[in-house]
Specification:
By secondary structure, the protein is of the alpha/beta class. About 60% of the residues lie in helices and about 15% in strands. The termini are close together.
Length: about 200
């Protein structure tokens, strides 16, 4: 079974690439979704976050993202601690899902993580694929997807690593600069090659 790491900046088209892998019978693991599920279900994760950052949960039990953000985004050590805590739990769940996919006889497992290249999961992958797209295309996509202003969309894009970072650090690149259909076909060609 091939483990394929998928990464790239917001709005580039990772979802389309992941949908193609699902068409091929691969297990798709969205690390962001895994993290949010663990926040709701893992008492151990919640305890570790509270032990390090104090009361960062809302009365209803959800994570107070603004409060946690204020604690970590201006403090490099705190952000490093947050990443260490969350990555430990997310990586364990990703490894569990990869093992389950292998037991099911799947041809591959796709690990979707924006910070794939910076963490331990990169070493778990047989191949890494960067999904990139022109900035103007990404701005339009995330504005439409999330109902945000152009100014906010551009600020989010500017806060992320440039496309070149993903291209330079991945084994393959999918450039999403055409129609959705043409991009999906480009992804099919690449993933057939990788999975065979």
């Amino acid at each position: 079974m091939k483990i394929i790491g998928i990464t790239g900046p917001t709005g580039a088209g990772k979802t389309t690439a992941l949908n193609v892998l699902a068409e091929f019978g691969c297990c798709v693991i969205d690390c962001d979704a895994v993290y949010h599920a663990l926040l709701a279900t893992s008492a151990a994760l919640r305890q570790d976050l509270a032990a390090r950052f104090g009361d960062v949960f809302l009365p209803g039990g959800g994570l107070d993202r603004q409060r946690l953000g204020k604690l970590v985004f201006q403090n490099e050590a705190a952000l490093s601690d947050l990443n260490a805590i969350t990555h430990r739990y997310v990586n364990a769940e990703v490894n569990r899902r990869i093992a389950q996919a292998e037991a099911e006889g799947r041809p591959g497992a796709a690990v979707d993580a924006i910070a794939l290249l910076e963490g331990e999961l990169r070493d778990r992958c047989d191949v890494t694929v960067a999904v990139i797209a022109p900035v103007e295309v990404r701005v339009r996509r995330i504005m439409a997807r999330e109902g945000i202003s152009e100014e906010y969309a551009r600020a989010r894009i500017a806060a992320q690593k440039p496309a070149r970072f993903y291209q330079d650090n991945c084994g393959y690149t999918l450039n999403n600069d055409s129609t959705p259909e043409a991009f999906a076909e480009q992804a099919r060609r690449l993933f057939r090659q990788i999975l065979n």
